[in-house]
What we know:
Chain A contains 13 helices and 9 strands. Chain A is of the alpha/beta class. Chain A has a single domain (4-312), classed as Rossmann fold (3-Layer(aba) Sandwich). An 8-stranded mixed sheet of chain A has the order 3-1-4-5-7-6-8-9, sandwiched between helices. In chain A, α4 (74-91) packs parallel to α6. Chain B has a domain at 40-97: 2-Layer Sandwich (Alpha-Beta Plaits). Helices cover 10% and strands 21% of the residues of chain B. Chain B has 2 helices and 5 strands; from the N terminus they run ββαββαβ. A two-stranded antiparallel sheet of chain B has the order 2-5. In chain B, a hairpin with a 2-residue loop joins β3 and β4. In chain B, 35% of the residues are buried. The chains are: A alpha/beta, B alpha+beta. Chains A and B meet through α1, α2, β2 and α10 of A and β1, α1 and α2 of B.
Amino acid sequence: MASLKQLTEREERLTGGHRLCAGCGASIIVRQILLATDYPVVVSCATGCLEVSTTIYPYTAWKNPFIHNAFENSAATISGAEAMFRAHKRFGTIPQDKKVKFIAFGGDGGTYDIGIQSLSGALERGHDFMYVCYNNEAYMNTGIQRSSATPMGASTTTSPAGKVIPGKKQYPKDLTEVIAGHHLPYIAQVSPGYYMDLIKKVEKAMEIEGPKFMNTFSPCPRGWRHAADASIDVAKLAVDCCFWPIYEIENDVYNLTGQSNLIATGKKEKVPVTEYLKTQGRFKHLFAPGNEEILKNIQEEIDRRWDKLVKLSSL
Amino acid sequence: MPDDHEINYNSYKELPPSPIATGSSLVFKTGGWRTMRPIIDLEKCKKCGICWKYCPDVSIIIVEDLPKVDLDYCKGCGICANECPFDAIVMVEEESI
């Protein structure tokens, strides 16, 4: 693994001057992922905060080739670019030994909801690319509407907490498990708070041929209603309370990594989910009297999913 | 790589044939958004690079192992100050500087 010093000497492929909010998780994730590899990369991006804020016409914050097409087809676009690259190699217009890595970015809206069919198709066709979902748990770009990644109890503009409903009523979809059904060579779930773990996983994924998927936890100070400087703290807490376990699935073998491994083996203590919920304004109403039941249900669901994951993992 | 210069299209005839970006977003000095400025105490700094790796705006630059804030683009989110394990970074109100 590259040392921090080596990483600092690498060229930044995302420049400053992008218009993401102060403290945004998405740009931290993009920087960490692109710094983890030395290969030239081609990036495609689904419509979302990241795309809108980094490529305001006619300017771009990317130093690598970047394609934006539409909301639903980030994976289809990158698979087309990858197929073209292979065709050029076949025709001899690109040298055979040239290595380029293809990375698609999408938010949770562009991955969990709108882009899932193109993602599933590209994974099934077996293109050599990596899909990175930066999951900020709602449609932040259009004004915090609920998505299928929004956790239960979160107040969004389309699931507002009030007298009628206490925030979103459903549990979030577990997309990493949905993708696991594609039996890919490499699938990982990561959090930018645990940086070394993320870098290790990206380095590993870049050496594997075939479709790869990475689900990343991306704090959003604006939509989650926490202070801009708390993004990394929140990203760490989500892992500590097992709401967002960090693990990898390599050829159907589950492996809890980093902090999640320490929790599963009893070396670190699992934090109650209330500690995590307390940090964000979107869950504030859950701590009002009368909502104890919801907190209990959330904790039970997290425990249930965590226990299932621990059982699947080889510790 | 597109250049760091401003682009002004005066008519549709000047537009490139397809919607491609021809300029770098480095033109936009997002430092203007800042209300709090990070001040680094280099005597307390242990060169761990934590501020650098968590910066969302590529605004911590490592010069000879030591961090430096790029005030042109720093939005003042305060992640660096919050995450620094040695309390070497403090956030100071812009107005007081």
